[in-house]
Amino acid sequence: MAIDFPPGFELGVATSAWQIEGDVAGRGRCNWDDFSERPGAVVDGATGEPACDHVHRLEEDLDLLMWMGVDAYRFSISWPRAMDGDRLRPEGIDFYDRLIDGLLARGIRPVATLFHWDLPSELEAAGGWPNRDTALRFADYAAAMGERYADRVDRWATLNEPWCSAFLGYCSGYFAPGRKEPGASLAAAYHLILGHGLAIERLRSAGARNLGIVLNVIPVISETESMDDATRHVDAVQNRIFLDLLAGRGVPADLRQSASSVTDWSFVREDDNAVLSAPIDWIGENYYSVMRVAEPDLDNTAAIGQDTAAFPACPPLRFAPRPPFTDMGWEILPEGIELALREITDHLPGVPIWICENGAAVEEVTDADGIHDAVRIEYIDDHLRALTRAVERGFDVRGYYAWSLMDNLEWASGWTKKFGMIRVDPETGTRTPKDSARWYRDVLAARP
Ligand code: FCB
Strand 83-84 vs strand 87-88: parallel, antiparallel, or unpaired? Predict the structure, then answer.
């Protein structure tokens, strides 16, 4: 049965700069270039070169988007491609001009994210996000992008998933820059939202419209009552620190207390509140899965969560996802999307929501007839249906962007995990639509 989308519901696909662009020589270096060159940091040793070689294959990729029939394309601007210190980098600006104009010429709305984790190396070297100055530099970059593209970008996101930048980057060290400093990760979380708020103000002054931020609110579910405190802690680090700051409530009081052994919170300034909670026009949610918090299994320490739970103030716990799983080991739970929507709406009532990423790394079967990825189709179909049911129940969701247009560098997993609806051969760069690409194209075309 066809999916019944609300009138005007926007459908698209998403990518990010470091994961697809390649052409490292055409830009400044970033934290992910440095990190990916460290032995062992990325499982298969992949680096940002050539990724999907998107910079050189721009026209082909634009044509694929048009073939798919998307309403909108969510991409990210690489800060070190667009800027060289505080100056615009002409070749980079020319590239994003061609990308944006190419989308508009094909009737596709450009949705730009300013920071999808690729921080210029010199800013990382100067301390990165734990350093307040990075937020100020980010605002300058946002202003420059606003001045250049406000007339043509339809929707702006300041940050993508600040939780990953803060906690995977500076606490578990699983992502760039690979630091393992819990106190610094909290300062990073705070300065990311500060940078976001400053950027919103600067973008608005530059005349940019539809300004928001993309979070990955992950519903945290307690498996037993005995785990309620641990669940609350995980929710504070994963979700509430960001939602509370955006909502003008400051750092959650329980987190302030529980993390006092790793930070004195001296980076928090009471007069930042208005900036942290600068009014936004929309909020993005990247939904993939939920987190289930269970009793620790002390015989099996490997099962104890390494990311949010690497945080020292975290009570002992175990993450216990339930099958079915994707190739990432993430539980598949389409109804969980409504839990995420509720947590967002509780904090930011009246702010419309876009699902900015959703998709799956799954097993694919290739034969003479093509690339068969039935599990991906089922995953996306089930999530779209769960989402439209949530909209019927009153959640104000206006759009959905599938992750991802094409296979790409899956961060620390390199090329080993594939989320694309279009296959990219990592050796040749050849693009081949999978079954899911044709299926999504049909879903888009079937709308009234
Ligand atoms: C999200 C990221 C995106 C991609 C997907 C699978 O956390 O925003 O770049 O890696 O996960």
Answer: antiparallel
Give me the mean pLDDT over the 181-204 stretch: 97
Q: Cβ contacts of residue 448 below 8 Å, gap of 6+?
A: none
Could you tell me the two tokens for 234?
């995980």
Strands (E), 108-262: 109-115, 155-160, 211-215, 220-222
List, in sequence order, every residue forming a beta bridge with 88; answer none if it has no partner.
Answer: 83
Compute how many other C-beta atoms are within 10 angstroms of the C-beta atom of residue 417. Answer: 19
Residue 219 corresponds to which tokens in the numbers above?
């519903």
Instruction: List own/partner pairs for 97-105 with CB under 8 A and 24 or more apart.
Output: 98/58, 99/58, 99/62, 99/75, 100/149, 100/152, 100/153, 101/152, 102/58, 102/59, 102/62, 103/62, 103/65, 103/73, 104/152
**Is residue 293 within 8 Å of 221, Cβ to Cβ?**
yes
- Contacts with 31 (C-beta within 8 Å, 6 or more apart), sequence order: 117, 118, 119, 120, 121, 124, 128, 169, 176, 177
Predicted TM-score (pTM) of this structure:
0.97
For 130-143, how does the pLDDT look when each residue is reduced to its tens digit (9 = 90+)? 999 999 999 999 99
Residue range 209-235, pLDDT digits in tens:
999 999 999 999 999 999 998 899 899
Cα–Cα distance list, 308 to 173, 220, 363 (Å): 11, 11, 28
Three-point CA angle 1, 389, 335, nearest 5°:
105
Closest CA to 381 of 359, 351, 397, 404: 359
Show the domains of the chain with their CATH numbers.
10-445 (3.20.20.80)
Whether omega before 177 lies within 30 degrees of 0, making that bond cis, reads yes
Q: Which of 410, 413, 415, 421 to mutate to test the pocket of ligand 1 (most atoms within 8 A of CB)?
A: 410
- Helix and strand numbers (H, E) in the chain are 17, 17
Is ligand 1 within 6 A of the CB of residue 75?
A: no
Pairing of strands 282-286, 211-215: parallel
- Residue 267 CA to residue 194 CA, distance in Å, equals 11
Q: Among all residues, which ones are annotated catalytic?
A: 161, 357
Measured in angstroms, how far is the CA atom of residue 271 from the centroid of ligand 1? 33
pLDDT tens figures, 6-64: 999 999 999 999 999 999 999 999 999 999 999 999 999 999 999 999 999 999 999 99
- Give the residue whose CA is nearest to atom 7 of ligand 1: 161
pLDDT the model gives residue 309: 52
**pLDDT at site 313:** 65
